[in-house]
Amino acid sequence: MKKILVVDDEPELKGQLKWAASGEDREVMSAESAEEAIQLIKENVFDVVVTDLKMKTDYAGLDVLRAAKEKDIYTQVIVVTAYGTPEVSVQTMRLGAFDYLERNAPGTDTLDMVARKIELALQFREAKTRGSCQNGWN
Amino acid sequence: MTKIEAMLRSSLERWKDLLSIEEQEPEPGFLGPVPYLLALRWLIFGGASIRFYLHRAEYSEGGHWVLLLVGLAGIVTLGATYAILRPTLRRSKSIRKLLVGLDIVIISSLYLLTGNTQSDFFLFYYLPILSAGDYLGPRGIGAAFGGVTVGFGCALLLLWYISPDAGSLTDILLRTFAPREIFFVSVVVTSSLLVRLERIQREKVLQREYELKTLLERREEELVALRAIDNAIVAQAQDPGLSSILELILDSALEIIMAPIGAIMWFNRWTGELELATERGMPKECRLGRQRPGEGIVGLAAARRESVLVHDVRDPKWRGIYTCVIPETRSELTVPIVDDTGLLAVFNVEDTAVSAFCRSDQALLETLAVQAAIAIHSVQTYEKLESQIRSLHALSTIATRIQDVTYTMDKALRLLLTGVTAGAGLGYSRAMLFLAEDAQSRLEGKLAVGAQTRSEAESTWQRLDAQWVELQGTEYDELDKLLQEAEDFSDAVTSDALPDWPLSKAIQEVSMRIAPEAGAPSRCMVEERTIIVSASQEDPFRDVIEQVSRPGDRGLAFASVPLIGRQGTLGALVVDNRFLINEREISEDTLDCLEAFAGVIAMSIENIRMQTQIAREKKLESSREFTARIAHMVGGRLAVIKGTVTQLRHELADQDVPGLTREGPIGSRLHQLTEGVRKAEMKLTDLRQFAAPLELRLEQLNIIATLRSAVAEIRHIVQCPVPIQAPSRPILVRADAQKMSEAFSELILNAREALEQAAIEEPEIRIAVGVQESLKRRQSFARIEFADNGPGVPKERKERIFDPFYSTKGIGSGLGLAIVKEIVEEHGGDVRENGVPGEGACFVMLMPIVESETSNQQGRQDEEDTRGR
């Protein structure tokens, strides 16, 4: 069972992210704020986190990212944002995000892309954790 | 007390001292030693009579009555001696007569009694003659002496002739004229001569006294007159009337020196002519006379700055100099009135008699000339002060009013120019304002206050005069009323309810290059000082004046003041005095106030520009914030819609609904939705770009290259010729390549859209690149012009098109040009539209050029070359 967390302060967007994340053998949790998300991260281990960047604060998503990475370094975090600047994207990637998506890029089917990225992120995590297990314990 | 009065007072004191020495009156009647000689004689005879009495026995004749007589004679003699020795007694004429009579009686009787006739004869007769001096006078005494001597001589000759035994003539003469007698006579004659001389001296003194008295009286008169003039000057200080003071001076002068004709002629420094200021006794035809220095006696005094005293104008030495104004004139006296700045006026008096004036008259006029100079000075100083105060008061009133933040540039400038031209302000006739545009390469007319034609001027001034009369007695200040009118007029002109003044409209068409040879306004800006162009000087700016002001206005003086702000020279203010009655000169003394006004004008322009800039930036800022928020919100909604479409597609696919392909019924609708969202998102990108603060990544680049590549990129969108005319040498700027490219693209696309909207048949966008030197060579600019052949931009929109969200196109965001402006201004440049409305738009972008190392070296090399030459 893969655990996925979606975070967005807008209920409709949160709902869509949930839809994009859901599937067989997937448990999707949702949060509406960074604090809520961080709480959930404390209580759970997630495979993938999809979070909005700007919520209560301009960079609330980065807090979620840090918290998730702290909890489990192999958790893959996808940051979705309404409008990004190169600086922010660089910072996001440096903090260890799996990807950084712009919501309103003209001509892109964002939701579809989110779904695909989640799939890729899950696979990546698989690979990473298996690798570490192999390296770590054996 | 004036200096002159003090001087005269001390002279008076000195003369009075002189006179007090001579206060003793000379004695009337007896001359000098005569009383003492008479006293001596009587004493001698008194002694003789006493001796006679003592020897009375020898003289038998007469008996007692002789003795009585002798005694009486003795007493009387003593009494007479006493009387003659007392000054108070001998002053009386009756006592003198008595004494003289007594003398004759006594001597005669003694002689008769003693029979002694000869030797004391002279004493006998001559002394009384001398003592009778005040009756006889010097000639009388001489005649009497001569007569008696001649008579006595004849008597002697007769005696000698008829008496044979009298002896030779010599004996008789010797006997008669004994040494004793000769001694006495010579003493008496000498002393009487000395006395006579003394008398003559005394008479001279009396004469001098008389002259001094007359002089004193005249000086008193002069003093009184001077004091009256001084008082008049002080009293008139509140309401200076120079002509009344000059009249007073003239009247006083004519009265004291008693001349019938006089005049004071004022020297007009502007025209170089002498004009009649005030006159007395001149015939009417002469009253409008003007003379130049050098013409006539008056002219001579004026030219030489020296007094000229003419005793007879018909004298040949004045021929060729004297010009006849009044035919009856014979004497003339002219005194120049000068001060340390030069000739002020000329004082002239004439008389029909020859030699009517003397040196002391000249001295008086010269003194009065000093008074006149003082009066003129004080009046002029007062007037100057008053006008300065008035001007500065006007300036302060206006400056307070324009602090109001609701004032537009037009209103503030109009008020200031009203102050420059109002009578209650600086009082110039016209004021024209020019502002530097185009990176200080051109001066463009902005606003003018004043009349274009004489009839306009006169009707305006008539109206103002009538208004002033109306305002008398009310609380309204003339200046306030004028300013109020100016404010209302500004509102009316701005809202197009009224047309601007013809002169102002004409000025707004003027555009001059800023170069020293372009005339005074350019020069004053370059040299940063006020330039006065006098009526006789030529100046290229006069061509402009002729252009805007219909009659041939070439011959008047004007002044050009630079408007110097904190960041450089903003423009120039030109003033003149056209149509004023005297078309008065623009003198240097009035410049201070004019420059103060210019300073305030410059400050206001800068302030208002800054305020506008700040307001625009604020608006931009708030637009940004607003846009950012809207973008975020809309972005969110769009994302939801986009996502929903995705979900819908998946849903339908899961349910195997047919027609989901793009061509199918449902699929095409879904596609439309997606397309709609895409377009909206594109607009959103624009908005987001605008909302993000502008951060430039600067690098040195060749702006021509950037331009060419930007044009190349969008050539396929534009689909019309975009010729670029640029120099082959690179032009280097420090700029953000990406942003510059965006700016260029936006300008070209914007032009393209306008051409399309106006359905121009052969659209063309011409780009021209050049270098523009700024006025002071502090900064050169790259000048890039984007000109199209579309409808152009109407005048009132030229500035507004750069405002954010201003759009004449239905679908546009209105942000394009605002972004361009922001990008360019962030680089330190400027962008504006200055095409001719109706003939096409022309966007001009100016970017500051940087000197790269190579071009710097080149520049230095060029400089050295020219210096070496």
Percentage of residues in DSSP E strands of chain A = 15-25%
- Element pattern of chain A in H and E: EHEHEHEHEH
Structural classification of chain B: alpha+beta
* Number of beta-strand segments of chain A: 5
How is this structure best described in words?
Chain A has 138 residues and is an alpha/beta fold. Helix content of chain A is 51%, strand content 20%. In chain A, strand 4 (76-81), helix 4 and strand 5 (99-102) form a beta-alpha-beta unit. In chain A, helix 2 (34-43) packs parallel to helix 3. The two termini of chain A are 25 Å apart. Chain B starts with a helix and ends with a helix. Chain B is rod-shaped. Chain B is 56% helix and 14% strand. In chain B, 31% of the residues are buried. By secondary structure, chain B is of the alpha+beta class. In chain B, helix 6 (121-131) packs parallel to helix 9 (179-236) and helix 12 (359-401) packs antiparallel against helix 13 (409-421).
Protein traits:
heterodimer, A: 138 residues, alpha/beta, 5-stranded parallel beta sheet, 5 helices, 5 strands, 51% helix, globular, B: 869 residues, alpha+beta, 6-stranded antiparallel beta sheet, 19 strands, disordered C terminus
Structure summary:
With 138 residues, chain A is of the alpha/beta class. Chain A has helices spanning 11-21, 34-43, 60-71, 86-94, 110-137, and strands spanning 2-7, 26-31, 48-52, 76-81, 99-102.
SSE topology sketch:
The complex is a heterodimer of chains A (138) and B (869).
Chain A lengths: L1 E6 L3 H11 L4 E6 L2 H10 L4 E5 L7 H12 L4 E6 L4 H9 L4 E4 L7 H28 L1
Parallel strand pairs in A: 1-2, 1-3, 3-4, 4-5
Chain B lengths: L2 H19 L12 H21 L9 H22 L1 H4 L2 H22 L6 H11 L1 H30 L6 H8 L2 H58 L5 H16 L3 E8 L4 E8 L9 E2 L4 H9 L3 E3 L20 E9 L2 E10 L7 H43 L7 H13 L8 E8 L4 E8 L4 H18 L6 H17 L7 H7 L2 E3 L6 H8 L3 E3 L7 H8 L9 E8 L2 E9 L14 H64 L10 H27 L7 E4 H16 L5 E2 L6 E4 L1 H21 L7 E9 L6 E9 L27 H11 L3 E4 L8 E7 L4 H16 L1
Helix pairs in contact in B: 1-9, 2-3, 3-5, 5-6, 6-7, 6-9, 9-10, 9-12, 10-12, 12-13, 12-19, 13-15, 13-19, 19-20, 21-22, 22-23
